[in-house]
Amino acid sequence: MMYLGVIGYPIRHSVSPAMHNAALKKAGIEGVYLAFEVRPEMIKDAIFGARALGFAGLNVTIPFKEEVADFLTLEGHAALLKAVNTVDLREMVGYNTDVYGVKRSFSDLDVGGKTALVVGAGGAGKAAALALVELGATVIITNRTESRGMEAVELIRRHGECIFYPFERVGELSGKVDILVNATPLGMKGFAQALPVPAKILKPGMIVFDTVYNPVDTPLIRSAREAGCRVIYGIEMLVHQGARAFEIWTGIKPDVDVMREAAIKALKNSFIHSA
């Protein structure tokens, strides 16, 4: 029996259990994937407790992606970013599959030479920024806490063009960016339902990507569609980062379509029950 899970705070919005349990069933693996809400002061105990209980792996979400890096050996993008969203508890190794998820979300778009504004400098923001510079874009990071934003820029700048822009002046970038990424919790179920940037930044033809997936139609996604932007839904990043995590844990490439269908169904059920 394989035990897997996701930890975060809050975590009730997560549809990862539905997505991964569908993938386990499709792959013929006897296992279960569960969601656990962990209080911030208990995060270290949660990681080592799950390992002691025989869990094979965990996903890590807000607000723990950077903190858990302290307890693990880091591989690949996790080592570059000091941010982890996937843990192999058998080896105590941390991975960052968010970068892969972002790249797959942009897979049918040519972003080389374009300018991207990434809002947020946490784990998701750094993953999005790194993915975009690796795809050839110039990245501007903005964040409410300037010191945190500058730290992210210093990391990303080692791999491509990246600068910081003060959050209170971000409206000045109207008409100067081709891509907008929301990597903050704004718009997420249980968080403030607001735009991460002034609406005037949204222009026809822009690519707008919201890493938030619950709800599917966030305030940013709705506003971007109304402004004539091309939108990328957070569900794409969720599914593809999840598929890569599944492969790390099991050694098997999962059926991505099955994962997407299960995630969308869970989101619809969540909407119906909360309406």
Structure explained in plain terms:
The termini are far apart. β1 (2-8), α1 and β2 form a beta-alpha-beta unit. α4 (98-105) crosses α8. The strands form two sheets. Strands 2-1-3-5-6-4 form a six-stranded mixed beta sheet, sandwiched between helices. It has a six-stranded parallel beta sheet with strand order 9-8-7-10-11-12, with helices on both faces. The mean pLDDT is 95. With 275 residues, the chain is of the alpha/beta class. The longest helix has 19 residues, at 256-274. The protein has helices at residues 16-27, 43-52, 76-81, 98-105, 123-134, 146-156, 219-226, 234-250, 256-274, and strands at 2-8, 31-37, 57-60, 73-74, 86-88, 93-95, 115-119, 138-142, 162-164, 179-182, 207-210, 230-232.
Q: How much β-strand is present in the residues?
A: 15-25%
Please state the structural category: alpha/beta
Report, as a whole number of angstroms, the end-to-end distance.
36 Å
Rg (CA only): 18 Å
Q: Tell me the CATH superfamily of the largest domain.
A: NAD(P)-binding Rossmann-like Domain
The tally of structural domains comes to 2
The major sheet is characterized as: 6 strands, mixed
Please tell me what the overall shape is.
Answer: globular
The name of the CATH architecture of the largest domain is 3-Layer(aba) Sandwich
| CATH level-3 fold name of the largest domain | Rossmann fold
Order of helices and strands: EHEHEEHEEHEHEHEEEHEHH
> How many DSSP H or I helices?
9
* Strand order in space, largest sheet: 2-1-3-5-6-4
- Count of strand segments: 12
Rounded mean pLDDT score: 95
Query: Low-confidence stretches at least 5 residues in length (pLDDT < 50)?
Result: none
